[in-house]
Each structure stands twice: as structure tokens, then as C-alpha cells.
Amino acid sequence: MIEIDGSYGEGGGQILRTSIALSSLLKKQVRIFNIRANRPKPGLAPQHFTGIKAMCDLCSARAEGLAIGSKEVFFSPNKIKAGRYEIDIKTAGSISLILQTTLLPCMFAEGDVELLIKGGTDVKFAPPIDYIKNVLVAILRKMGADIKIEVIRRGYYPKGGGIVKVLVKPVDMLKPLELVDRGRFIGIEGVAHSLNLPCHIVEREASSASRILEKNGFKADIKLECGRNFSQGTGITLWANYENTVLGSSSLGEKGKRAEIVGEEAAKELLTEIKSSATVDIHLADQLIPFVAIADGKSIYTVREMTNHLKTNIYIVEKILGKKIFKIKKEKSVYIIEASGIKWRKN
Length: 347
Hints:
alpha+beta, UDP-n-acetylglucosamine1-carboxyvinyl-transferase, Chain, Dihydrodipicolinate Reductase, domain 2, 2 domains, 4-stranded mixed β-sheet, 15 strands, 32% helix, 29% strand
């Protein structure tokens, strides 16, 4: 059994998500203690509880300590099953963070896996679903993944109510990821979205983002979504497409925050990534860690900053795999991440 200290590094839910994902994949028992010890409300929040419960269903796992607020969980997985699963967070908890727990194991299931997940699509402290769909999944496809994401309904804090359908087809092995050069610039896309708010808000978000990008020599094709449904909120996600990679950014609206600021934040964040020479943005860098660690051979990519999330994910992955996987070196303005994948194959 592998013992994981949940207070290590950034001490958040990412430790839990990565641990459960790799435990399910490798069929290794884990005990995670001091869960989210560094957070204002330690222990399992609803989305963490739901993510583990979903994996219990997906691989007939036995779990102990699985309760809201629990600071320690024991998880013992079995074979990852194909099928259709409904996952309801019952709050505005992030659907994207549920996918950080479930995507990797689902890619090595016995057959196709369809997930219907209810919760928050665009919430604080989590990647928006458009980022997962247009950045993370786009890069995973280069590794051989076959994943489709459909946003049926958006959900914002505090009501949630978003619905996302995800179809994952199994792979035998993931190809290594070689991203040393962005390749030809293709263009910037994005989506500004809202529910139960005046439509001029998304128009202003998109206009603000476009204006800043154009001042820096970039045109953006930003789609507008404005509707009425269960919850209320707004936000924008942008992504820059290159021949070999995708860079992403986002910003969420909140009460008292002008729409122009929302668009400006996303545009400036994307420009920071574009102006660096990195091949992935700072958010994607840590999300890729478990995938490249199990891939068929050596992966390489660059990032402009070593975040706490990135350092923590590397530590957890190497601890669970029981070997040194990653080499990191600084070269000019970027960090080079090299991973010697363990060549994990579906069995």
C-alpha cells in the first residue's frame, strides 16, 4: 500500500485527484492522509468525495473514510469497467476537476466509457470546461487519446447545475509527447458565455479581449453564448492554436467585476503565454504530468514557470510509480520538462 501525505507541497485536492487516478490505473492500494490540510476547510469537499465515489463505481473499488470532511481515505481498486456512468456533484463543484480524477483511468478501461457529469462548468480555482475541451484534450489527442466532450448546459457558482457529457474510447498505450517547438501560429479562438445575465456582458467581454489582442497583433475568433437556465454567471476562455500545440487562458465574472476586466484578464494571460517561448501554458504543464509519466517512452515540453501545482504533481506521480520519472532544467526563459514514461499498457 502506498502512503500519501495530502499536506505535501500545495496541499490541495490535486494530490487526491492524481493519487486516485494512478491508483485506479495501476491497481495499487493507497492511503491518503492529511487531506487538504492547508485549506481553510480541510478534508474532502463534495467534488472530491464525488470524484472518489465515481472511481469506486468505475473500478469496483473499496474505499474507507469516504465522507464529506474526511481527512483520510483508503482506496483499493479493481479492473476499470466500460459503461455509462452518471456523476452528480450536487453543488457547483468543478466538473473539470472530476475529469482530472477520471479521464486517465477511463482511457484504459475495458471498453468505451461515457460519463454524464453534473456540477459546475465554470467555477473559481479550477480550469473551465472549455479549457479542458480545447486545450488539454487537444494535446492528449497527440498522445493517441480519443476523448469527446459536449457541454450540454453550463453551471456557475453557487447553484451549479451544469451538465457535461464525456465519451472516452480506450487506448492500449499513450504515445510520448514531444513539444519542443510550437510550430506555425494558426489563430486565436475563444468563447464568452453567460446565463441569466444581459447579453451585452458577453459582448463586452469579447470586445475587451479582442481589442487587447489586436493591439498586440493578434485577431481572435470569439464565439458568444448568452442564455437562460438554472444558474447565473459569466466567463471567457481563450486558446491560441499552433501547428504543434495549444496555449490557453480564462477569466470568470463575479459581482462588481466589470465585463471589460474579465475579457482583459483572459487576453493578458494569453499574451503572457504567447510572448514566452514555452510550448505549454502554466496550467497545462501540471495537468499533463500523469499522462506523460505512463506514456510509451520519453516526453518533452517547456513551460515558463515551475508552479507549486507542477512541483506537487511531479512528486506525487513519482512516489506512486516508485521511480524517478522527470528531469527538469532551466534554459533561457523556460523550464524543460523531460519524462521517461513507464510504457504502461492496458492489461
